[in-house]
Amino acid sequence: MRQMEEKLQVFEQEILKEANQKKMAIEQDTEREKQERIAQKENEILTKAYQTIQKELGKIRKEQNEMLSKAASDSKRLILNRRGEIIQNVFRQLMERIEAYRETEAYAAFVLRCAKAGLEEVGNGDIVVLIDKRDLKQKTPLEKLGVPVEQDAMDILGGCRVLNRSRSLVSDRSLAKCIADEKEHFLEETDFRIQPV
For each of the chain's 197 residues, which pLDDT tens digit applies? Predict the structure, then answer.
């Protein structure tokens, strides 16, 4: 009986040992499966978080680009407005000086020189000297050049235009043309042109 008990004890130990081994194997499999599931869930969560972060970064970049574009547009508009104010101020002062100059004897001589130069430029033919309506007092001295003098339909601001009707030539020696030419030169010299951003 003792021998039987010993055999039973050995058998029991073998069974317990085998059960422990199976238990440990099951626990290891369970732990491994648990770790795999945790890793899989972590990857899913990280992927979703990455996608969310990328989406939000895209929104932030878009908002920043819109803000920068608006700021650049606003700045350009302010610069253009200020540039326009400066140009208007400069040319308003110029017009005031022209008006004062037109009241001097030097202006009368200037108009006469303009008419002579214009006559040389257009040559012979049916010629007329055109003057500004405010310069009609200059008509008599100009008529001494031997050509008719008429009021110009355009506001030429002073000076004159000489028209050769037979040759369809115009010598524009008006202050309006001089100002238009100088305005372009003024913008170039003062670097008032707006460069693209």
Answer: 778 888 778 888 888 888 888 889 888 989 999 899 989 999 999 899 899 999 999 999 999 999 999 999 988 888 888 888 888 888 889 889 999 999 999 999 999 999 999 999 999 999 999 999 999 888 999 999 999 999 999 989 999 999 999 999 999 999 999 888 887 777 777 665 555 54
Closest alpha carbon to 150 in 159, 140, 139, 141: 139
* Domain ranges, ordered by start, for the chain: 1-101, 104-189
Task: Report domain 104-189's class.
Answer: alpha beta
CA distance 120 to 75: 50
